[in-house]
């Protein structure tokens, strides 16, 4: 099996270009189903989640081609409307296909996405949003059977769900008439999705605010679009420099997309400079604890950055309190960090990180995507060798975590380990 071997304990120095955003490319690829032309997407990261999404598009009948970081999707031909169960199980965010398939084909069938490492992942807001546009949705033996000619309407989300906002936007683009989404998620990836839809000739306004208005019912042509950079990957790399000490630069990123993260790293004692499409950080040998970190919908502190920032603060002087308010089970990396000597107490949504003087390399296993990245970050701050397994989680969201960290000066290699079956 593939593992990362990390030699920690020395400071970093380097620069890295940040990959395209996973949480942009997934809904944007789903949106290509609404286009009867050819869509060309640049800065498309090489991720297993993207591979699974391309597999779904291929199954639906789209012609799909990847050349380097450019993906081309041709959805001109009439499409299938079902997503097979195994493909749905690979990735729960495939539920974002529901809106575009229903909008394009008038019917859709896919499995109820299972839970994941972060706990239950309900989709009640997705379903109520689509029902507001006239969808008839039946849930039968784990499958969602949907049909209906969609018409514009008013959708109010009881919480600003990213996926539900995206599903509603995509269904509304196909729905005849005007749709207003209130209490929409405000994440930058929602703005990226709007900008892509505008490229295809859709009429969508307000993304980035809590109210999005879509004038739907027009056929969409093809288009060419370049995806935004991944703000969580950028936060990961800044946390790596903060954890190990030294200096580093991440490029190709809009610093405003992660200002809550850079503010925490600055409070912890780092010098952070945000320039045009780049962020530079210089970190002392020891950080200091910061005021409580509460995860929240954008523009609050991102839940996806919680684990990597926690890893950076394991050796900080003092105690930092985290409150994870978005997901029920997003502290699974804590036990693995404890194997490296971290002192973290978890009570429900709250985790208290008591800074320790030293971390020690150990064999650790990724529990989920960002938990895995956090263990790599901690390995850079630990003395000795850390061996990180469970890389299938990491490959979902990082095109080349080890290569990117090497560009920042880290001693990390991906190797193969023979696993004895006994
Ligand atoms: C998106 O997930 C991201 N995934 C997640 O990134 C991210 O953590 C999350 O948004 C929050 O920012 C993608 O974009 C592919 P939500 P999503 O719907 O859309 C509850 C990563 O690491 N909820 O905003 O699933 C839900 O249980 C991943 O890159 C309902 O109750 O997140 C959660 O507690 C992990 N009913 C909260 O809302 C619903 O119908 C936020 O979920 C939908 C969600």
- How many strand units? 23
The side-by-side strand order for the widest beta sheet comes to 21-22-1-23
The helix content, as a percent range, equals: 25-40%
Largest β sheet strand count, sense and barrel closure: 4 strands, mixed
User: Given the helix and strand composition, which structural class is it?
Assistant: alpha+beta
Mean of the pLDDT scores? 96
Q: Which ligands does the model contain, each kind named once?
A: ligand EPZ
Envelope shape: globular
Q: Rg, please? A: 21 Å
- In the predicted model, the low-confidence regions spanning at least 5 consecutive residues are none
Structure description:
The protein has helices at residues 22-31, 48-60, 85-90, 98-105, 124-132, 162-174, 188-199, 231-244, 259-267, 306-312, 333-339, 369-381, 391-394, 401-407, and strands at 2-8, 12-17, 38-42, 63-67, 70-74, 107-111, 136-140, 143-147, 154-156, 177-182, 203-205, 211-216, 223-226, 246-251, 271-275, 278-283, 293-294, 319-323, 343-347, 350-354, 363-365, 384-389, 411-416. The chain is of the alpha+beta class and 422 residues long. It has a 4-stranded mixed β-sheet with strand order 21-22-1-23, with helices on one face. A 4-stranded mixed β-sheet has the order 2-14-16-15. Strands 4-5-3-13 form a 4-stranded mixed β-sheet, with helices on one face. Helix 8 (231-244) packs parallel to helix 12 (369-381).
Topology overview:
Blueprint: E1 2-8, E2 12-17, H1 22-31, E3 38-42, H2 48-60, E4 63-67, E5 70-74, H3 85-90, H4 98-105, E6 107-111, H5 124-132, E7 136-140, E8 143-147, E9 154-156, H6 162-174, E10 177-182, H7 188-199, E11 203-205, E12 211-216, E13 223-226, H8 231-244, E14 246-251, H9 259-267, E15 271-275, E16 278-283, E17 293-294, H10 306-312, E18 319-323, H11 333-339, E19 343-347, E20 350-354, E21 363-365, H12 369-381, E22 384-389, H13 391-394, H14 401-407, E23 411-416
Parallel strand pairs: 2-14, 3-13, 9-10, 17-18, 21-22
Antiparallel strand pairs: 1-22, 1-23, 3-5, 4-5, 6-8, 7-8, 10-12, 11-12, 14-16, 15-16, 18-20, 19-20
Helix pairs in contact: 1-2, 1-7, 4-6, 5-6, 6-7, 8-10, 8-12, 10-12, 11-12
């Amino acid at each position: 099996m593939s593992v990362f071997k990390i030699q920690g304990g020395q400071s970093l120095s380097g620069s890295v270009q940040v990959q395209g955003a996973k949480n942009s490319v997934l809904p944007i690829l789903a949106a290509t189903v609404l286009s009867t032309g050819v869509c060309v997407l640049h800065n498309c990261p090489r991720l297993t989640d993207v591979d699974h999404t391309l597999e779904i598009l291929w199954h639906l009948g789209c012609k799909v081609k990847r050349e380097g970081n450019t993906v081309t999707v041709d959805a001109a031909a009439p499409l299938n409307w079902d997503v097979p169960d195994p493909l749905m199980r690979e990735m729960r965010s495939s539920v974002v296909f529901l809106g575009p398939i229903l909008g394009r084909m008038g019917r859709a069938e896919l499995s109820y996405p299972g839970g994941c490492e972060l706990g239950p992942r309900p989709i009640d807001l997705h379903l109520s949003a689509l029902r507001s546009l006239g969808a008839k949705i039946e849930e039968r033996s784990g499958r969602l059977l949907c049909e209906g000619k969609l018409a514009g309407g008013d959708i109010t989300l009881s919480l600003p769900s990213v996926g539900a906002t995206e599903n509603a936007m995509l269904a509304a683009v196909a729905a005849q008439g005007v749709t207003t989404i209130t209490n929409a998620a405000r994440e930058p990836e929602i703005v990226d999705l709007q900008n892509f839809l505008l490229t295809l000739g859709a009429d969508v306004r307000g993304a980035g605010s809590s109210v999005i208005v879509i004038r739907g019912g027009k056929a969409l042509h093809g288009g060419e679009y370049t995806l935004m950079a991944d703000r969580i990957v950028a936060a990961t790399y800044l946390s790596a420099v903060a954890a190990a000490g030294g200096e580093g630069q991440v490029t190709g990123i809009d610093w405003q997309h992660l200002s809550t993260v850079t503010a925490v790293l600055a409070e912890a004692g780092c010098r952070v400079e945000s320039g045009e499409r780049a962020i530079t950080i210089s970190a002392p040998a020891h950080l200091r604890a910061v005021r409580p970190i509460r995860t929240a919908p954008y523009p609050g502190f991102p839940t996806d950055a919680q684990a990597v920032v926690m890893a950076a603060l394991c050796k900080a002087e003092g105690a930092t309190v985290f409150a994870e308010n978005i997901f029920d089970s997003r502290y699974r990396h804590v036990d693995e960090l404890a194997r490296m000597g971290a002192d973290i107490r978890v009570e429900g949504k709250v985790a208290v990180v008591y800074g320790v003087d030293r971390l020690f390399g150990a064999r650790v296993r990724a529990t989920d995507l960002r938990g895995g990245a956090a263990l790599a970050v901690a390995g850079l701050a630990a003395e000795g060798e850390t061996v990180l397994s469970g890389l299938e989680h990491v490959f979902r969201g990082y095109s080349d975590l080890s290569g990117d960290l090497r560009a920042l000066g880290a001693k990390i290699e991906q190797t193969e380990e023979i696993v004895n079956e006994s």
